[in-house]
Amino acid sequence: MSRVSAPERQEAPVESPFTLSCSLARERPGDAVRQVRWLDVQNQTLLTYQPGQTDSVSGQQHVELAPAPKDSSAITIRRVGFRDEGCYTCIFDLLPSGSQQGTTCLTVTCEDHKRAVLSCSYGLPEKVQQVVWSHSPGRGEAQEVASFARRSDPMVEPPYQGRVWLSASLSHSQLTLQPVAVPDEGCYTCLFHTTLGGPRSATVCLDTYVLPKPQVSYRTTSPGVVEANCSCVSRPPAEIVWNVERDNRTLGPPVSTQTAQGDGTTLVVSTLTVRAGLLKDVSIKCLVHHRGLESAIAVAMNTKSQSPPNPYPSQSPPNPYPSQSPPNPYPSQSPPNLYPSQSPPNPYPSQSPLVFSGLLSSPLVSSRLL
User: Fold this and answer.
1) Same domain, 258 and 202
2) Does residue 27 lie within any of the structural domains?
3) Do 202 and 249 lie in a common domain?
4) Residue 202 has what pLDDT?
5) Percentage of the chain surpassing pLDDT 90?
6) CA distance linking residue 259 with residue 252, whole number of Å
7) pLDDT digits (tens, 9 = 90+) for 91-105
8) Contacts with 351 (C-beta within 8 Å, 6 or more apart), sequence order
9) 159-168, 199-208, 228-237 — which is least confidently predicted?
10) pLDDT at 301 exceeding the cut of 70
11) Domain limits at 94?
12) Would residue 233 count as lying in a domain?
């Protein structure tokens, strides 16, 4: 039987485009793909098309069909928002064997110190008297964050004032957090007080990721023995492994320790003991894996590169002008000055030369819809 495969879980940065994909593995050569369908997190049709027929594409405005190999399908969400978080279904309608489907789930992330917008909607705003947002930390009781009632202005509770804003709407309520920080982790509940059937609510949860910035050091503990340490602080704790290039001259497996920090992060230290001669022969790398990273961070403890060998080990390189100094290309004068009346022009006249710098990583916040 044919089957559809897709990444089990993916992460997408908020307010950026992101592509979802799936692929079909055919077990019956006679199967033909009649149609491909994508369903959104509410199991509503997101996009449909017939392969090879560009005019057959139809779907919601915020998504588009993306290029994909044969027997694969891809769609791009033009601008990811927290409303896009959840699980998507990719369906291949096959003839004659029937439909096959796969599922991929999307987590939306945003950088710390940036903005996160949480939203919920109610279809009968005329029946809503008030909307209230509350925050439930991982441990502790729920706290009211903000509220908006008919014929009043949005109200934000004192602990959240200055970094939390609430829209003045009883139909589509938006809670904005800026800047997002680690203490914002937890679940947020949007509660509509209505005159029709009592309160209605929805909940969205934020998971906070502090990405690791690993450091490597080593010291000699005894003659011929070196202790290598790789450490990093992150949330949740990172996993550290060692990569010793094609060699097994380590003195036992690495030893790891974890120490909780006061800000909710965890310090992880991995110690590897090796023979000193190994440092000169092979490359030793510390690999740090973290839930918020697409791939591991690799930090080399040493390099095998050395200065190039001297082709004249017992003497200085031969002088190509043994009886004299090298010829002066300007025998009767000094070399010409390209800027005779002034100093060379500064390519940055109003500032110092441009220096590019960047952070290795930054904390992230992700959300999951309940």
Assistant:
1) no
2) yes
3) no
4) 87
5) 43
6) 23
7) 999 988 899 999 999
8) none
9) 199-208
10) yes
11) 3-109
12) yes
Residue type, 9: R
In a domain? residue 179: yes
Q: What DSSP assignment string belongs to 149-183?
A: ETTS--EE-GGGTTTEEE-S-SSEEEEEESS--GG
Say if residues 137 and 186 touch (Cβ distance below 8 Å). Answer: yes
Nearest to 291 by CA among 361, 244, 187: 361
Q: What are phi and psi of 72, to 5 degrees?
A: -135, 160
User: In the chain, helix, strand, coil percent, each to 5?
Assistant: 5, 50, 45
Please compute, for residue 5, the number of CA atoms within 13 A of its CA located in the half-sphere on the CB side: 3
Whether pLDDT at 167 is above 70 = yes
β-partners of residue 196 are none
Which helix or strand (DSSP H or E) is residue 46 part of? strand 45-50
SS3 at position 71: coil
Q: Are 78 and 16 in contact (CB under 8 A)?
A: no
Express each pLDDT in 339-362 by its tens digit. 444 444 443 333 322 222 222 223
| Residues contacting 153, CB < 8 A, separation 6+ | 168
Residue 257, classified by CB atoms within 10 Å of its CB into exposed (0-12), middle (13-18) or buried (19+), is exposed
Answer yes or no: are the C-beta atoms of 204 and 191 closer than 8 Å.
Answer: no
- Which neighbouring-strand residues pair with 53? 50
Mean pLDDT estimate for the chain: 80
Going from the C-alpha of 16 to that of each of 7, 9, 79, 120, the distances in angstroms are 19, 18, 5, 21
What is the sign of the dihedral through the CA atoms of 225, 231, 237 and 239?
Answer: negative
**Average of per-residue pLDDT across 236-243:** 93
Identify the pLDDT of residue 246. 63
Residue 196 in tokens: 């029709």
What pLDDT does 345 receive?
A: 42
- What SS3 state is found at 279? helix
DSSP 3-state assignment of 76? strand
Q: How many domains does the chain have?
A: 3
How far apart are alpha carbons 228 and 146 in whole angstroms? 50
Residue 80 to residue 70: CA distance in whole angstroms: 26
Both 248 and 276 in one domain: the answer is yes
